[in-house]
Amino acid sequence: MAIRKRPPDSWSSPVVMNPSSPCEGQNPEGDPPDDWFHLSTMSLGTQGSDGSRDDPEEPEEKGRLKSKLVSAWNNVKYGWSFKSKARFSKTSPLTMLGQSYLLSHGVERECFRRAFATLLWLTYRRGFPQLDGSSLTTDSGWGCMLRSGQMLLAQGLLLHLLPPGWTWLSANHVSKDDMEVQESRSLGLEVTNKGQRKSIVSFLESWTEVTHRRVVSWFGDHPIAPFGLHQLVEQGTSSGKKAGDWYGPSIVAHILRKAVDAASSEVSNLTVYVAQDCAVYIDDVVRLCERPLSEGSTGPSPAWKSVIILVPVRLGGEVLNPTYIKCVKNLLRLECCIGIIGGKPKHSLFFVGYQDEQLLYLDPHYSQSTVDITQDNFPLESFHCKCPRKISFSRMDPSCTIGFYAKSQKEFELLCSAVSTALSSSTERYPIFTIAEGQGQDGGQEDESDAPPNSVTHILTKDKARLRRTNNSMDEFVLL
What we know:
The chain has ten helices and 19 strands. Cysteine protease that plays a key role in autophagy by mediating both proteolytic activation and delipidation of ATG8 family proteins.
């Protein structure tokens, strides 16, 4: 059954929200259509007989009521659900990006809280500098797949630049109401009284926080940010996309690759490989990652770049094929997995884990004011979410892109082995994708715009992949 698209012009009005986490109980504020705003303000007595707005002395009760009306409008328009809690089982393990947590255990529950609050959360923003070629200063209503892609790339960058197991210091101060499980005592970092140890810990904390802030700044909504919306929209022009268009998970994978290539001066020793024909070709990855030794140097082998591997796939026809669920779970159990950009129909999400038959995700559909990342010590709180959310596997759209990260050649070899094992768990005749010896067409880095406009890749044999035309474009999946 075809999915009916809502007209994009119904999503064009920007939304203004408090930049803090929605878990803290703030109400959204925004700009509904003029006729709606006129009626609501007339009913509240906020417009004078001369047509001018009320003076600043508007009664507090009327202001609160107007805020609630505007909040209700934005809630309906952009699909954000202000649930304060997500229900989690205390008996079933919760898996997130290669780590497993048993929430009945106080220490593990606290570790999960910290780990989740450490993930970078990139959402709709409003009030940023105008995007080239358009009059848009917000991505509300059309940019959620780009935001999901940003979160996927951000997770890879955090693994690339920060120590294993790093957590954001402020993630320790989480609300006791962000999950429906009993609160446990918080963990504290035990530091001896020895001055030298304190000094080392202080230095490491300072260095990691500086690096964390730098990574966040790369995703700011400013033309200078290498992975901000302005740069991603610009990189999408070669695929025929522009600001305000819908983006699919496959095109976003290629946009991220081009953005990382363009930011080599900012992010050194990192490359992105996008799989083609549902196959990761080992020789192509090796060619991308191997760096020839400089002239006159001697060494056992060429230096190796770290790599983010992005695999666009389709897990069924109109809906998710349930036989792939076990395989998706196995992939999310891998430490090398950095998440999945996909969602439910017309509503992009960033999947980071699962519990039982539900996926754990971060939702970009929360519109916040733009943060000026050019300022020193800009606030970080709006880039982290303390509210885990879940969605049933059955509601997952079949079009998605799966991400992996390998820091070294050894890690890439382990990745190939672990992913191949996870893929073999599928009960379908053919796996979601394959890891194959040899080279693919154009080294696997062809532009998405080179593909037929209505093509979706499927594995037809174990040894050879080809394209099959279908009426379902991977890029028809996206957005609210």
